[in-house]
């Protein structure tokens, strides 16, 4: 009887541990982030940072959810993982700006070691037992683990020339549609890309990450999947100047 009781207790403890592990490994909900984006991002992608500051309790609640649900490739699908990291990058960028607001540019936020690291190297993101900076997430995880060039139109660096911050959270269910929409909207935005059949004046993002866009063909092949105009293969390519001013709905200090 004593051995049987001990066996029952042991099995119960194992069951509780397994249930806890499975619960922590389940994908996080992005509902709070979705509602924050709808409330504080304009149709043109500009961000009401003061609104996010006033809503800081809910933003912090979402970041807490992210910090306790690190993606797990044994339990999460690839789309669940990618949606998580895209949302995390954008949400923690908002957090970085609101913590230093008002600023004229994200680049005005100084890291610990000047001239060595950039703002994207500030390690302020804690997810379970791991610490990240924005570069870790974009280049060490998103670009490294996911063969998806459209992510460059989904991550937002809080600047005027960035692809706009979407008004909805990325979700596994709608991820392909959302990434296609982000790509098409960015290339159709004449303030960032001017595209004709014979000449394209495009964002330097395309140049910076050209290798990501040319894995399965040339650059024109990729652009023509999402461009509002069919571009000739011999079209002239010019890269525009990048505007690092903050993508704020309100003027700084206004």
TrEMBL record:
Boundaries of every DUF547 domain copy: 76-187
PROSITE patterns per record: PROKAR_LIPOPROTEIN
Name of the protein in question: DUF547 domain-containing protein
Species name: Membranihabitans marinus
């Amino acid at each position: 009887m004593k051995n049987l009781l001990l066996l029952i207790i042991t099995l119960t403890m194992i069951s509780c541990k397994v249930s806890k592990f499975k619960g922590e490994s389940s994908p996080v909900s992005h509902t709070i982030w979705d509602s924050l984006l709808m409330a504080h991002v304009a149709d043109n992608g500009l961000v009401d940072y003061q609104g996010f500051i006033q809503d800081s309790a809910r933003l912090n609640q979402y970041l807490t959810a992210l910090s306790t649900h690190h993606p797990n490739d044994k339990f999460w699908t690839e789309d669940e993982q990618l949606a998580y990291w895209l949302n995390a990058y954008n949400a923690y960028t908002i957090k970085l700006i609101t913590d230093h607001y008002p600023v004229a540019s994200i680049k005005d936020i100084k890291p610990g070691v000047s001239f060595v690291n950039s703002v994207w190297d500030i390690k302020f993101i804690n997810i379970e037992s791991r610490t990240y900076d924005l570069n870790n997430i974009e280049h060490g995880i998103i670009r490294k683990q996911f063969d998806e060039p459209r992510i460059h139109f989904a991550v937002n660096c809080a600047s005027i020339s960035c692809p706009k911050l979407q008004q909805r959270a990325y979700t596994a269910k709608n991820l392909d549609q959302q990434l296609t929409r982000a790509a098409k909207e960015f290339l159709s935005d004449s303030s960032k890309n001017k595209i004709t059949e014979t000449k394209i004046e495009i964002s330097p993002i395309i140049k910076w990450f050209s290798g990501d866009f040319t894995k399965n063909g040339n650059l024109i092949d990729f652009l023509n999947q999402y461009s509002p105009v069919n571009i000739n293969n011999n079209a002239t390519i010019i890269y525009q100047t990048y505007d690092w001013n903050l993508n704020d709905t309100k003027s700084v200090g206004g």
